[in-house]
Design brief:
- This protein has 338 residues and is an alpha/beta fold.
- It is 41% helix and 18% strand.
- Strands 3-2-1-4-5 form a five-stranded mixed sheet, sandwiched between helices.
- Helix 4 crosses helix 10, helix 7 runs antiparallel to helix 8 and helix 8 packs parallel to helix 9.
- The longest helix is centred in the C-terminal third of the chain and has 26 residues.
- The two termini are 34 Å apart.
- The mean pLDDT is 96.
- It catalyses: L-threonylcarbamoyladenylate + adenosine(37) in tRNA = N(6)-L-threonylcarbamoyladenosine(37) in tRNA + AMP + H(+).
- Its cofactor is Fe(2+).
Length: 338
């Protein structure tokens, strides 16, 4: 009989300290996340120095709670996987050095995982992959379309040329005086408003799967400033609905077009903005009409940063024999295609 594989995952790329244990790349045994949102909220965004200090304080506690929930010890594990990039360098280094220390102390293989690969593999915790597949990755720092022909193979066919979608959400939310993080607040407001404000959609040149949200963000800010100067009342709900509709139209249209062109069997939604109800509903509506393409959307708990996704992606690397040595570092600008 094939032996079960248990991978401990660690995630500290931004402002969540997380640890998880995954069995065979598919089953969650334990998944613990310590969020720092309350600490960063008053600054309107993540402060890197504060984030890394919190990781130092929380990493041991989160790790101990994970082992406790799983009722396991290090002798039960097959390897340790950790996010090695991209992310905030100070935050990454806490997780990387913790993973290296544990791997050395317990003589376990060490696996370095790309953060976005982790977000993609969060979907495998829901459903086994069928290749070729296309993943729409939407988060605070990333917006891209990633084609996969097999496990561990990533081809970026479209990416943002300026602001990521999540970054645009946060900046528009700040303009509307909404608290950080802005995405969930925009999503809630949008459900109460109507997309009656004419805002741009950046389709870019013919055939491009790239994205651009900088112009849209500027258009929202200009609309609000012009209304203020003219002393015209403008509903925040309608601004949110109009902005969100513009983002969703571009994301869904390009995803559907790419899915058809590359004849994929599955489309996956990944990243923090995957929690957006408007985006989830729009994709479900679009792909309901495409019976030969399966749409997979992870639950909200697996959309935001977590370590279950890192362990899931790390399991594939374990099976492929792709390990790191103790010289592994944190790589803030790591390329998923490398």
């Amino acid at each position: 009989m094939k032996k079960d594989i248990y991978i401990l995952g660690l995630e500290t790329s931004c402002d969540e300290t997380a640890a998880a244990i995954i069995k065979n790349g598919r089953d969650i045994i334990a998944n613990v996340v310590s969020s720092q949102i309350e600490s960063h909220k008053r600054f309107g965004g993540v402060v890197p120095e504060i984030a890394s200090r919190h990781h130092v304080e929380q990493i041991t506690l989160v790790l101990e709670e994970t082992l406790h929930q799983a009722d396991m010890t290090f002798s039960d594990l097959d390897a340790i996987a950790v996010t090695k990039g991209p992310g905030l360098v100070g935050s990454l280094l806490v997780g990387v050095n913790a993973a290296k220390a544990l791997a050395f102390a317990h003589q376990l293989p060490l696996i370095g995982v790309h953060h976005i690969a982790g977000h993609i593999y969060a979907n495998r915790l829901m459903k086994e992959f069928a290749f070729p597949l296309l993943s729409l990755v939407v988060s605070g720092g990333h917006t891209e379309l990633v084609l996969m022909e097999e496990h561990g193979s990533f081809q970026v066919i479209g990416e943002t040329r300026d602001d990521a979608a999540g970054e645009a959400y946060d900046k528009v939310a700040r303009t509307l005086n909404l608290p950080y993080p802005g995405g969930p607040h925009i999503d809630r407001l949008a459900a109460q408003g109507q997309p009656v404000i004419d805002l741009p959609r950046a389709w870019l040149e013919e055939g491009s799967y790239d994205f651009s949200f900088s112009g849209l963000k500027s258009a929202v800010i200009n609309t609000l400033h012009n209304a203020e100067q003219r002393k015209q009342a403008i509903k925040a709900e309608d601004v949110a609905a109009s902005f969100q509709q513009s983002v969703i139209d571009v994301l869904t249209a390009k995803t559907v077009k790419a899915a058809k062109e590359y004849r994929v069997k599955q489309v996956l939604l990944a990243g923090g903005v995957a929690a957006n109800k408007g985006l989830r509903a729009a994709l479900e509506e679009q792909f309901a009409e495409l019976a030969d393409i399966e749409l997979i959307i992870p639950p909200l708990s697996l959309c935001t940063d977590n370590a279950a996704m890192i362990a899931a992606a790390g399991t594939v690397l374990y099976e492929q024999g792709k390990f790191e040595d103790l010289a592994m570092n944190g790589y803030p600008g790591l390329d998923i295609e490398q």
